[in-house]
Amino acid sequence: MSGIVGLFNLDGRPVEPSELKGLAAASAHRAVDGEDFWIGSAAGIGHQHAGVTLGSPTERQPLISPSGLVIAFDGRLDNRQEILDACSPSVRSPEAAWSDAALVLAAYGACGEAFAARLNGDFALALFDSTNRRLLLARDRMGARALYYCPRPGTVLFASEIKSLLAHRAVRSGPDEDALADLVIDGYSDGTRTCFQGVYSVPPGHVLIVTTDGRVLRPHWDFDPAREIRYRSFDDYAQGFRALFAESVRRRLRSDRPVAVSVSGGLDSSSIFCQAGALIKGGATPTDLRGFAMTFPGNPAADEAAYLDHVETASGLPIVRQSVSALRLLADVERTIWHMEMPGLTWDVQSTLLSSARQSGCTVVLDGFFGDQILSDQAYLVDLFRRGRWLTVRRHLRESDAWMTDIEPGLSKRQFRSTLVRALPPRWLFRFVKGRTARGRLGRRLPTWYTAKFLERGIERSLSRPNLDRGFASSHAEHFYKNATSGFCQVQIHRSNATGLMHGLDVAYPFRDRDLVAFLMAIPGEMVNRDGVPKALLRRAMRGILPDAIRQRRWKADFTGAGNRAIVSEFPAILRVLTRDSLAVQAGLVDGDRLAHELTTFERRVAGADTALPAWQIGDLVGLELWLRRFFGAASS
Q1: What are the residue ranges in the chain where pLDDT is below 70?
Q2: Please, what's the b/e burial string for 144-163 (b: 16 or more CB within 10 A of its CB; e: otherwise)?
Q3: Is the pTM of this model over 0.90?
């Protein structure tokens, strides 16, 4: 990923070059191909060049137009010709002659502050209008790229990484307990707050406009909740999905360097790899594609090596495999926390795979994340239930259980009952009942080692989140929208992107393509899981591309046992981190006595657990403590 840094002195003070370069120094790892700076009378922008060429002309950024517009752009535009046609109809030069940054400037010249609505792709950008003394910061709707800002008296700082803002002499930050409560208690981010006081994120799909008169935050694009797409047959829906999925993968193959795919042997990642291989064979892209996978010999529940053989045969492309005997959570934690900039840890196998991809020359890796979230939807059953198709609902639930042989029998039915309870009552009644009952239910499932005050804050914030009421065409559309814009998914995307950045890789997610998600949101939900078959639409669309052994696969790899064993093996190290005088205790977030009591039996609990919940909970706590140490030290109290 490229990097963006900058500041805008609202009081007209000149920018000191050392001030701007100091921001960039904190994120120097992004400047793979160097960095450049622009300094105006009261504003300065820096661009750190990443070693990724996205199939369009490149120029040194910040890019400066003759009219006084300055832009630093991080990402990829997917509708380049559309922007050129709409914003520069008199220009006769071909689309290939324009860089993405230049197209953004053309959109701003034609549309002014509404320019970001024209942009489709994965991006974050900073644009300064010198004539009108106006700064605009924008992110794409899917939140693929990060962009932060920090208002200070007379100045607004902005950057791709929080650590760049913390490096400024005017920034004195501490832990933001509301954001920490969201994240640590519930795994959620509201898209605006960060875990650092006074440091904010530009929300996905928004543009922040800063002038000497103040700041305005506006949405620039969102999904149409009432849109509906109707075809004659299931095969027509499958063809529509197939075309959009192929385009999504092709967009993310735009690179003059080798592109990696993280392949597990599962349905989602295998579909990406085989689709990419088919595009290359068909001449749609000249990309050098490489697959990377982890195998787990001796762990039948997690090992998918046999499926990788099928993927290699179908695609005609090799997959580099690395054997894993055990997982580790505390490997390279200092660097992980530094890049992640929030509490949280990742399993070492992810870093191992990414490191292997980078060493092979890759600069982009495609990831199958979000396939489950948008292709395993039960909300459509609520729509069928409302239409009186109760026997169809019953049949779909039975078929779903028959396909997912690795889950507990009857789980689909129990999940549907829960979905129905939330969906059928009037919203006001559901929110009233939820407020009365959810507090106790949430409290029972949360770890007792957090202080009562911190737990209460997390529960209160969870219950007070705004409810969406946007005139959705169906329960299916509403569920898809919530998943696509979810703060839970944003946390996962951020952590995965940070891990990729540790290894100089741009992580891309074909299942989070804006056009693909909009299509799935608008079609009837029963087409996604046709006749109750999980991911039926993807399975049908991938006929002739994905091997049948994977298209018909009825189980997913289970890493619960491996994760729990890893926690047990690393428990002595965990005990050394989680002491009675730990920073989380000093900060009033963790109760030291309760923590000490819980840890006396926790190792046995994890060893005997049949779910991953205890491992996640202890991992979140360790991540919180290490984050406090890394960014605040003793001052966190």
Answers
A1: 51-59, 89-93, 425-444, 634-637
A2: bbbbbbbbbeebbbbbbbbb
A3: yes
